[in-house]
């Protein structure tokens, strides 16, 4: 007797393989935003530094969400540096989709298998790799963790209608915490609540104690709980905002131009699909042999899965599916409207196809609308199933082609991180000082960093951090370097508090800002002054429209040794300057390095940041160059 084939098991296996094929392209690029590099710096400082960042940012911006958002971002940026961490991030990211589909099937009271397969295939077929501040390749946990928690809670509440009071209170408490982690989680929670109550209005459910009013079914106890949840989160947000008024003007609302507002929102929604980016052209020449294999397998698997799964969708010849599609489409647009209402977003992201974090959330609702349209079509015309399957399968192939090009660009931008890891943890470079290796990392400056970051100082700190980490098993050996370096950040090996004198602010993870028109550093020379040939200053100036007006006078014990000017078009001349130590320098006085700034700038006055300090120069480190005969 022939054993019956387990098509059910093969069905789920093929879905898993299809998701894995896409994950192979998504796992390559990581830390794709300048903020991610900044969060790595805070993660290197440990939890104390990260929590200090959270408190400082929360109080400066008036957003209590930073107490959760900053640690999540630091943890995500650190986790992305490990290969296993990137796979974990992707598992959590795709886990959002799975729980969203389970929640949707429960809400619609549809069989999970067919709906899940159709939706997941469509999501994978139109899911693009994106650079623009979008997870999972940037901010990998900021949205993923809160959204996953919210979806799990809503799914559990739908899955078990009769639950103990303590369980309901626990689930609502988790939702309150997750929704308090940022604006986008709260917005997404509201879309889930809207969808649930619209469905409750639509049909009677014996488990919900509904009452008929205005020709709609109202689940009053559930509605009151959900309203209380949103009001609680908003009350916490507003109370904190009242206690700590925001000093950041970059997110001011601007809805005076309704057409521009809507244009940005629609762009965020459509730009979250790979189909929108096909108009920019597909780079077929960038396909490798493995990309071609992935593309062909995606084509075949998508067609096979859809041709079977579409037949399992509930048949409905009415316009109910179209109403569902319209609701989902409106929720996708609603998700993108708040961020699109800010003046910063309208000035920065108004071109077609520009995307942001909210694009990934709107994508869930947009694909839900497409699934509803497909379900309506195949219900009316079952003969269209092969054609629909073929179109979606072709979209899956084109998506692989689009993602292959972005994958290669992301690999180039991520190479600096891998290069730093190789330098730090390879026995070949164990005897080379981190200060030398740092200048060889990412020489093309492909890794995205904020302008104030000194790349040599950053990479030196990162290499030293990796060498101290358990995964590296290498210690930085003693070296015979001709440079002694003094760092001025808040790390354990910083000498900031000991040698910074007047005119400096509190040390941060990257270094220390000046906050007066004059700032001084005492130089702790380990040799006599006659042995020091030159001093290297690693720094940044506050980048603004007036940078060309900035002049810095540099003095050593009241002797002028430098007059610095800057060109905004030549940033490579900005952040590392050499000062020759004059032979006439007194041998009997402490060496005091003085910076005098022609201009200082208050970023809060012009809405550039919430920082109210008067900034001019950010000091990273100082290196002392000794004469050859004075080397240790």
UniProtKB/TrEMBL annotation:
Keywords: Membrane, Transmembrane, Transmembrane helix. This is Uncharacterized protein. The keyword Cytoplasm does not apply. The chain crosses the membrane at residues 12-34, 84-103, 115-133, 139-157, 223-240, 260-279, 286-306, 321-340, 361-378, 384-405.
């Amino acid at each position: 007797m022939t054993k019956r084939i387990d098509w059910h098991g093969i069905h789920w296996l093929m879905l898993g393989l299809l998701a894995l094929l896409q994950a192979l392209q998504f796992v390559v690029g990581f830390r794709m935003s300048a903020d991610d590099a900044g969060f790595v710096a805070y993660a290197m400082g440990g939890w104390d530094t990260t929590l200090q960042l959270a408190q400082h940012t929360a109080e400066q911006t008036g957003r209590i969400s930073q107490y959760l958002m900053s640690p999540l971002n630091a943890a995500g940026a650190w986790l992305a540096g490990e290969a296993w961490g990137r796979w974990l991030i992707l598992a959590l990211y795709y886990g959002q989709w799975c729980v969203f589909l389970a929640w949707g099937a429960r809400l619609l009271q549809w069989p999970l298998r067919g709906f899940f397969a159709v939706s997941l295939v469509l999501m994978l077929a139109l899911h693009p790799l994106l650079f623009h501040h979008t997870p999972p390749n940037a901010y990998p946990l900021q949205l993923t963790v809160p959204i996953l928690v919210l979806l799990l809670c809503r799914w559990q509440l739908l899955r078990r209608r009769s639950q103990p009071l303590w369980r309901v209170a626990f689930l609502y408490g988790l939702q309150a915490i997750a929704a308090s982690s940022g604006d986008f989680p709260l917005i997404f929670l509201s879309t889930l609540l809207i969808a649930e109550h619209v469905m409750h209005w639509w049909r009677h459910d014996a488990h919900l104690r509904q009452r008929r009013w205005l020709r709609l079914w109202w689940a009053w106890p559930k509605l009151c709980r959900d309203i209380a949840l949103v009001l609680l989160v908003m009350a916490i947000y507003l109370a904190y905002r009242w206690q700590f008024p925001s000093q950041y003007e970059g997110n001011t609302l601007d809805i005076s131009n309704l057409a521009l507002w809507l244009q940005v929102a629609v762009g965020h929604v459509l730009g979250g699909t790979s189909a929108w980016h096909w108009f920019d052209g597909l780079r077929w020449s960038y396909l490798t042999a493995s990309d071609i294999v992935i593309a062909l397998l995606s084509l075949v698997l998508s067609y096979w899965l859809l041709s079977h799964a579409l037949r399992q969708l509930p048949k409905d010849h009415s316009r109910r599916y179209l109403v569902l599609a319209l609701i989902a489409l409106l929720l996708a647009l609603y998700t993108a409207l708040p961020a699109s209402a800010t003046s910063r977003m309208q000035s920065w992201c108004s071109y077609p196809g520009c995307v942001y974090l909210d694009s990934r959330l709107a994508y869930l609702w947009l694909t839900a609308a497409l699934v509803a349209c497909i379900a309506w079509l195949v219900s009316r015309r079952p003969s269209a199933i092969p054609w629909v399957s073929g179109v979606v399968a072709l979209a899956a192939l084109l998506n692989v082609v689009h993602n292959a090009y972005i994958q290669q660009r992301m690999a180039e931008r991520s190479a600096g991180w891998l290069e730093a890891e190789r330098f730090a943890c390879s026995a070949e470079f164990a005897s080379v000082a981190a200060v030398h290796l740092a200048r060889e990392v990412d020489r093309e400056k492909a890794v995205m960093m904020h302008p104030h970051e000194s790349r040599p100082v950053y990479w030196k700190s990162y290499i030293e951090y990796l060498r101290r980490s358990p995964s590296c098993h290498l210690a930085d050996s003693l070296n015979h370097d001709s440079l002694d370096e003094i760092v001025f950040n808040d790390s354990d090996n910083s000498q900031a508090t000991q040698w910074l004198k007047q005119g400096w602010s509190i040390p941060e993870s990257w270094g220390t800002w000046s906050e007066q028109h004059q700032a001084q550093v005492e130089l702790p020379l380990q040799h006599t002054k006659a042995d020091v040939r030159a001093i290297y200053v690693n720094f940044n100036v506050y980048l603004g429209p007036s940078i060309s007006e900035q002049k810095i006078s540099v003095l050593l014990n009241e002797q002028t040794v430098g007059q610095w000017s800057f060109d905004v078009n030549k940033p490579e001349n900005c952040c590392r300057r050499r000062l020759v130590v004059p032979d006439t320098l007194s041998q009997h006085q402490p060496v005091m390095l003085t910076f005098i700034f022609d201009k200082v700038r208050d970023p809060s006055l012009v809405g550039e940041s919430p920082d109210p300090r008067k900034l001019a120069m950010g000091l990273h480190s100082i290196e002392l160059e000794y004469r050859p005969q004075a080397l240790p």
